[in-house]
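Ligand: magnesium ion. Inputs:
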Amino acid sequence: MAAVLVAGVLVADVVVEPAPVPDEVTYPALAMRDVTKTYALGAVSVQALRGVSFTVEHGEHVAIMGASGSGKSTLMNILGCLDIPTTGRYVLDGIDVRDVDEYDLAQIRNRMIGFVFQSFNLIPRTSALSNVELPLVYAGVKGKERRRRALEALDQVGLADRVEHMPNELSGGQQQRVAIARAIVTNPAIVLADEPTGNLDSSASSEIMQIFVRLHNEGRTVLLITHEDDIARYSARVIVLRDGRIVEDRRREEYRRHEAVSAP
Ligand code: ADP
Ligand code: MG
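Predicted complex:
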């Protein structure tokens, strides 16, 4: 029993319910609905995506597979906010990318997404450390703090002893590790990778996959494109594209979830 004031009038004997606290609203990490992408090439146009719908929850580890030309990179570029759909919706952690301008999209990308490419895309004649510092430059992180975080990211990928090396002084696997350090230095919740092991031999590939497993175990959402079954086996979910459409989306109990014991 309690007395409460309703519109300034004392009302007795009212059971006061606590104000309902809304559950924290959570959105899927990524959600696409009917996404299409058409590239115009002069008179011809190429329909790279023909209506793609799927949702990825936070903390999933997804492999995207499909033949060359099936639209994997196009899909990944849209997921990574490097490109936008021709039609359809893409909602990134509750943000519909149609609602934000290019500047904001770049900010969101920088804050939420780490991107790893097949060809590493490191800046030549620039040390591993400076390459990894770059996203922090864009994020406005200054001086010592920037250096500290870049060193920490390089340490996480097992390259603490290579920070002053130039890309051409590193093996392919090491260059990709620098690229992963660059992708995670801003601590993004989502890591996207387009054939990250495509240019690597099998031993470097498995080292790289150990790192992705660790990033996933730390709670990050990981999506990676591969056409190797061996690499896809690290994922609990496999999405297969054919001719710009999802033709398969399956989960499996058996996948390589083993802890990465230490950095390679
Ligand atoms: P995947 O990564 O699966 O090999 P892509 O997404 O790169 O496939 O390409 C899908 C289709 O879109 C292909 O036919 C490709 O030639 C075409 N395509 C990709 N990027 C462009 C572009 N920038 N301009 C024109 N066509 C493109
Ligand atoms: Mg591709």
